[in-house]
Amino acid sequence: MSATVVVQARVPEDLKKDTDPIFSSMGMDTATGIRLFLAQVRLHNGMPFEVKADPFWSEANQRRLRKAVAQVKNGRIVRRDIVEVDDD
Predict the structure, then answer these.
(1) Are residues 40 and 71 in the same domain?
(2) I need a labelling partner for 58 at 20 to 30 A (CA). Which of 31, 47, 51, 84 fits?
(3) Inter-helix orientation angle 13-25/30-44, to 10°
(4) How many Cβ atoms from other residues are within 10 Å of residue 58's Cβ?
């Protein structure tokens, strides 16, 4: 076995609080979950899952949302033209 090193990462408190029980339900602690993630990155030579931007937060969609908010504030009818994402 190779030597170990300490890796520190700052994460939001609620993220750790929410994920601790998930790791626990799988019989591991958070540190083991992080080691598992790093091992998968090494195995895949990259992220072990697809990383993509949520189209909801795109600049074009945010402009549409700001326009819709302005229309609502002015009492105008709002068209439904924001980007929709399937929950699959």
Answers:
(1) no
(2) 47
(3) 90
(4) 13
Closest of 88, 67, 86 to residue 78, by C-alpha: 67
Contact indicator for 83, 54 with CB cutoff of 8 Å: no
Structural domain range at position 34: 1-51
pTM above 0.85, yes or no: no
Helix, strand, coil share of the chain (percent; to 5): 50, 0, 50
Token representation of residue 75: 């009492």
Does the structure show a pLDDT above 90 at 42?
yes
Number of domains in the chain: 2
Q: State residue 74's pLDDT score.
A: 86
Rounded Cα distance, 43 and 12, in Å: 27
